[in-house]
Amino acid sequence: MNSEIFLLLGIIAIIVMVVFLYYYFNKRQIVKRKLKKTITTKMSDFQNGEIAKIVGKVEIIGEPLIAPLSKRKCAYYYVLIERQLSSGRLEKIIEEEITGTFVIKDGRNIAYVNGENIKSYIVQDRIYTTGHFNNPTENLEKYLCKHGLETEGILGFNEILRYKEGVLESGETIAVIGKGEWKRAEQEKLPDNYGRILSITSTNAQPIYLSDDPDTVINIDMKHQF
Q1: E strands along 100-225, which residues?
Q2: What local confidence, expressed as pLDDT, does residue 6 receive?
Q3: Amino acid 222: pLDDT
Q4: Helix extents (H) in the chain
Q5: What's residue 150's pLDDT?
Q6: What is the pLDDT of residues 31-53, one digit of tens each?
Q7: Distance between CA atoms of 31 and 14, rounded to whole angstroms?
Q8: What is the predicted pLDDT for the residue at 189?
Q9: In 3D, which of 161, 168, 132, 131 has the Cα closest to residue 147?
Q10: What are the backbone dihedrals phi and psi of residue 11, each rounded to the nearest 5 degrees, phi first?
Q11: What's the confidence (pLDDT) of residue 15?
Q12: Which of 15, 73, 133, 149 has its CA at 20 to 30 Å from residue 100's CA atom?
């Protein structure tokens, strides 16, 4: 009897550990943890070559992106589509992040995220589901078709799919960590009227961290309220 109890407790401990490790090391938590524990630096105080966190509002340059599921105008979008298997488990079938051209403004100061090595967490505020008796919208169907997928299974019934979308919209407050260097706007092929801008890049050791999660944009340093 004792051996059975110990075995059960061992299995429970393993399950708890697996869940904890998955939660702790998934991308969302890594990005949020990094941004939350880093003190915000005002752009005006940013030194060349420094790796630090800034907080500011998004300003789109040129034509905005159009988010594929909600058709919102944005600077950046993230889409995740998962299929529910017969076991009930969700299988990822599409994950897409697209970045447009935008800057981040902190008062009169401007920063530009310059680089493809970005680790982001964008709040997914639009969620859609389709199923056997729940047909997809035209937008959802077109997006799947674009990626060579269909909404119907082998027997002609709609598959059970979950769609999530998050965007960075104009005027939205975001937090970014990266290496900064002051440059002239034209050096980054930005409009000349931006003047002096802070170019944010990744390093060999660290990507750019970016999020619009409310927890990440709160400034933990009370001397530098945003």
Answers
A1: 102-106, 109-113, 118-121, 126-130, 161-168, 173-184, 196-201, 208-211
A2: 57
A3: 35
A4: 2-25, 27-36, 138-146, 214-217
A5: 74
A6: 999 999 999 999 999 999 999 99
A7: 25
A8: 93
A9: 161
A10: -65, -45
A11: 56
A12: 149
CA atoms within 13 A on the CB side of 214: 1
Q: Count of alpha carbons within 13 Å of 86, Cβ hemisphere only?
A: 1
> What is the spatial distance between Cα 29 and Cα 32, in angstroms, rounded to a whole number?
5
Contact 159, 151 (CB under 8 A): yes
Rounded to the nearest angstrom, the gap between the alpha carbon of residue 54 and the centroid of all alpha carbons in its chain is 16
Q: For residue 26, count other CB atoms closer than 10 A to its CB.
A: 11
What type of residue sits at position 166? G
Q: Pick from 118, 133, 127, 123: which is nearest to 81 by CA?
A: 127
Report residue 135 as tokens. Answer: 């047909």
Tokens of 107: 């008062």
Would you kindly state where each structural domain of the chain is located, as residue ranges?
2-217
Q: Which of 75, 76, 93 is nearest to 84 (CA)?
A: 93
Distances (CA, A) of 215 to 37, 84, 195, 222: 10, 30, 31, 15
Please name the amino acid found at residue 219.
N
